[in-house]
Amino acid sequence: MFAAYDKYINSLAEKIIYVKTDSSLCLLRRIQRDINERGRTLDFVLHQWKTYVFPCFKKYVKPQQELKKCIVITNNNENKQMEITI
């Protein structure tokens, strides 16, 4: 999504899909991943989320949502594969 922030790169893309997920679910997934797979502490993950991840999301990624050709909303924590034809 950060690539889509660049207007030139965005203009080159024929299709850009934005997968929209509730931020609380994103944080939950990040906590689980960072603790289990990366050995980080809960305090570190929360600090990183509040200081870097969420502010950058609001500044760079969320505004791009309006420019996407397709928005997929997923608000469950199941690992499902999704096929979309545009």
Would you give an account of this structure?
This protein is mainly α. It has one domain. 53% of the residues lie in helices and 9% in strands. It has four helices and two strands. It has helices at 2-5, 7-12, 23-38, 42-61; strands spanning 17-20, 70-73. A two-stranded parallel sheet has the order 1-2. The two termini are 18 Å apart. The mean pLDDT is 80.
Give the structure's gist in a few sentences.
The protein is mainly alpha-helical. The protein is built from 4 helices and 2 strands; from the N terminus they run H-H-E-H-H-E. It has helices at 2-5, 7-12, 23-38, 42-61, and strands spanning 17-20, 70-73.
Essential attributes:
globular; 2 strands; 86 residues; mainly alpha
Count of β-strands: 2
The total domain count is 1
**Alpha-beta content class:** mainly alpha
Number of helices, counting only DSSP H or I runs of 4 residues or more = 4
Order of helices and strands: HHEHHE
Low-confidence stretches: none
* Proportion of residues in β-strands: 5-15%
Helix proportion: 40-55%
Say what oligomer this is: single chain
Give Rg in angstroms. 15 Å
Across the major sheet, the strand order is 1-2
- State the separation between the terminal residues, measured CA to CA: 18 Å
- Biggest sheet details: 2 strands, parallel
Protein topology:
Blueprint: H1 2-5, H2 7-12, E1 17-20, H3 23-38, H4 42-61, E2 70-73
Parallel strand pairs: 1-2
Helix pairs in contact: 3-4
